Amino acid sequence: TTPVPGDEGRLYLEQDNIKEHICDEDISTLVDLPRGLDEQEWLATHTISFFEHISLMYDTVSEYCTSSGCANMSGPANSSYVWEDSRGKKCKCTAPQYVDYVMTYSQSCVRSEAVFPTKYGNVFPATFESTVKKIHRLLFHVIAHIYHSHYKEILLFKLHPHLNTLLLHFLAFSRRFSLLEDYKETDSLDDLYAKLVCEVLARRHPDKVSAPEANGSARSGEGSGDVGGTGVSTDCRGGTPPSPGGKESTMLPPPPSSQELEENKENMNMMQSRSGSASPTPPPPDLPPPQAITS
Questions:
Q1: Cα 277–167–211 angle (5° rounding)?
Q2: Cα three-residue angle 174-183-240, rounded to 5 degrees
Q3: pTM higher than 0.85, yes or no?
Q4: Which of 32, 93, 164, 237 is most deeply buried (CB count within 10 A of its CB)?
């Protein structure tokens, strides 16, 4: 098998980068459904938030994601993603075109009153959960591509703490509500996810967990235990710390401000400029989500 170029030397797995977060909140308090809140409202709120955060994160590196530099939509562990049209024909896209398709599809959904109702009296459609699952799957592909092909830019922008926290929250939530039912879809970042979980646990329970030597698995049902029903096994050399139960759930902290992003971009002066690419044409609205292909 010929490896897909990229992964930036898997810099995202280095301990100095893994330990950087912007939130040390217990995973269960980030994803558990608050008492008395409708589950569909909880799914809708988080899906919109994830869409906005992932879109903003990609925007920070979009000028370096070009048709020539990212000819394929690839991810870690030899993963590549292709679009599939309404007739089932697979369409190989450049990464910027693929991401544009993802964001166009996701935005059309979250802004549709028929799909994500916001007005009093309107109800969620019967297809709401399947739509949310499609959006989460698509958004995961974007995160995977950022880690695979643009992590050096993320480091130079000093945005890796934000990206780490975003991935941790996104995957924990997706698994808590079975939004990514095909776990093979997330295999490419399972190793990173497990390390991030153990790092957070190490900060909260330093007497029980040793993060640098963490051997935790990110699969539900493996290892010593599952934290908060998130599909996170916590065999991090110390067992599972008790869940804080009863804490008020918290959302992902706000993304960096425009001023912070502009200041961080000064770090990119050391990088060679690359030409941009023309904006791809948005796909028809009936296109189904892409399929992951692992070579």
A1: 135
A2: 70
A3: no
A4: 164
Distance CA 295, CA 293 (A): 6
Segment of 10-24, 145-159, 242-256 carrying the highest mean pLDDT: 145-159
Residue 5 pLDDT > 60: no
Six token digits for residue 11? 């810099």
Supply the pLDDT for residue 48.
96
Cα–Cα distance for residue pair 287/48, rounded to 1 Å: 20
Q: Are 67 and 56 in contact (CB under 8 A)?
A: no
Beta-carbon contacts of residue 51 (< 8 Å; ≥ 6 apart): 103, 106, 107, 110, 135, 139
Average pLDDT, the chain: 75
Which tens digit of pLDDT belongs to each residue from 69-89?
A: 999 999 998 889 988 766 777
Neighbours of 69 (CB within 10 A): 15
CA distances from 126 to 23, 115, 130, 203 (A): 35, 9, 9, 41
